[in-house]
Design goal:
Layout: H1 2-15, H2 21-35, H3 39-52, H4 57-74, H5 77-93, H6 98-110, H7 114-127, H8 134-142, H9 149-154, H10 157-182, H11 190-228
């Protein structure tokens, strides 16, 4: 899977460097250093590439990846900041560059900022619905509350009650789906076992996280309603 994605990034990077052989040469040079875990040299090469071709979104993305791995080695906040800046620059150059969206979303997710990660993941999957790691990305999205406590706190009383009705309906639907999958029976055949496995993956990877997320959202709204002293219907 990683080889597939790395190969795709390589093609995108080379295709995105239209500034002549020099920019492409530095991208290839950077990739060679990156694969050898020579991250400082990779960064230097990618920076030369984007200087020659400022519109090469994929080269900025690779620069962000080099800073990510350098951060993983050294743990310097400066490297993390430069990683984020490089991914953001890639998206600025090409607002539809879903690879950078996923990378930036992953950075925010692993820093614990799931609220920032979710819209990036969502947009990336809209642009590339056939992403090979779609199930994993959707699972991470499902862990992210749609509304933060701050956003809930800013709602009017009427908006809060309306949002509760919506949240309860969503939760009831998900709980009904969960019950259907959990009570489902399968024929004791190879095809039945295959269907069971697919359903189990969907259940654990998508439905259960979504249901947990919906429950968190519903409880957060109820807590705010109680805090305000409003009457629950």
């Amino acid at each position: 899977m990683r080889k597939l994605i790395w190969g795709l990034i390589t093609v995108l990077a080379l295709a995105g460097c239209g500034g002549g052989d020099s920019a492409e040469k530095y991208v290839q040079e950077g990739m060679a250093h990156f694969q050898k875990q020579e991250y400082d040299q990779a960064i230097a090469s990618y920076e030369k590439a984007v200087k020659l071709e400022p519109k090469a979104a994929a080269a900025y993305n690779l620069l962000g990846m080099a800073y990510r791995f350098k951060y993983n080695q050294l743990g310097s906040p400066e490297n993390r900041a430069k990683e984020i800046a490089a991914f953001e620059k890639a998206m600025e150059v090409d607002p539809k560059f879903w690879v950078a969206m996923i990378n930036l979303g992953a950075t925010h997710y692993h820093q614990g900022d799931k609220v920032k990660a979710a819209p990036l993941f969502k947009k990336a999957l809209e642009l590339n619905p056939g992403h090979p790691e779609k199930a994993q990305i959707e699972k991470m999205m499902a862990e992210t509350p749609e509304l933060t406590h701050a956003e809930i706190g800013k709602m009017s009383d009427e908006e809060l009650i309306a949002e509760l009705v919506k949240a309860k309906f969503e939760l009831a639907q998900l709980q009904s789906q969960l019950a259907q999958y959990m009570n489902k029976t399968y024929p004791s055949t190879q095809s039945g076992m295959g269907e069971c496995l697919r359903d189990e993956v969907f259940l654990q990877g998508v439905l259960e996280p979504k249901a947990k997320k919906a429950l968190v959202k519903t409880n957060a709204i109820i807590d705010e309603i109680k805090r305000r002293g409003l009457q629950l219907k």
